[in-house]
Amino acid sequence: MAEVKLRALGLREVDFGDFDRYLTALTEDGRRIEILCKNARRGKKQNPAARQLCYSEFILSDRGGRYTLRDADLVHSFFALAGDIEKYALSCYLNELTTALTVPDFDNPALCRLLLYALYALEGGKRDPELVKAAFEWRIMAESGYAPDLTSCGVCGEVIENPPVCFSVRAGTAADAKCAKRVGGYAQLVDSTLRAMLHALTAEPNKVYAFALSGPAREQFCGMAEEYVKYHLGRGFESLQFYRSLQAPMK
């Protein structure tokens, strides 16, 4: 039995037995792991650093990839998000989406950075939560092998040099106006929507959420991002349904 030290973010908790808990966590190198926290629900045995929405340094026992908690020291807690039910629900959705896109024993460090910066953005309160959500959706899909192509026409293959630019959620490609009209299934992008998409897809992880958008561009950017995730992953998310149930229709 080996001892492992690593940093990870708690994504989800599941109670097990009378006193134990399993913690799904995202390591700093982008792996999804399951940690058995023995006696985690028994009085003084509880460790507040081994919880959902905590980024902590863990000491684990490793038995062939099966991890058991020995100790954990908190690096940063996002518990403040639980004080706002909408932000908490959104955080749970970001966690669930990340869980769906991570693979055990496969490193993808960008995912952990993206999620941490998204939670920091929500915690800080200076960013529009809907834009944080949409930017996260676009970028995590791209980092996970579902990147949309916005530079060349998905119909004729030529580089799109002049606006307007159209986009198909299903095809995951852009098209010039002439080709889009000919084949159908493409929606014309508002210029600022296109700029926001390019920013979300290419910016450094700590800058992904550093932008603003309003009006029709905001609605298009956010609506397409959510539709893109649902279509290309072929599934919905319970946490997303709960988040939407808390809101009035997005304007």
Unreliable spans: none
Q: What is the second-level CATH architecture of the largest domain?
A: Up-down Bundle
- The mean pLDDT is 94
- Distance, first to last CA: 55 Å
Strands side by side in the biggest sheet: 1-2-3-5-4
The total count of strands amounts to 9
Oligomer: single chain
Number of discrete domains: 2
CATH class of the largest domain: Mainly Alpha
* CATH topology heading of the largest domain: de novo design (two linked rop proteins)
Query: Which percent range describes the beta-strand content?
Result: 25-35%
Helix coverage percent: 25-40%
| CATH homologous group name of the largest domain | Recombination protein O, C-terminal domain
Instruction: Return the structural class.
Output: alpha+beta
Protein name: DNA repair protein RecO
Family: Belongs to the RecO family.
InterPro entries: ARFGAP/RecO, DNA_rep/recomb_RecO_N, NA-bd_OB-fold, RecO, RecO_C
Function: Involved in DNA repair and RecF pathway recombination.
Structure in a nutshell:
Residues 1-78 form the DNA replication/recombination mediator RecO N-terminal domain. The chain has seven helices and nine strands. It has 251 residues and is of the alpha+beta class.
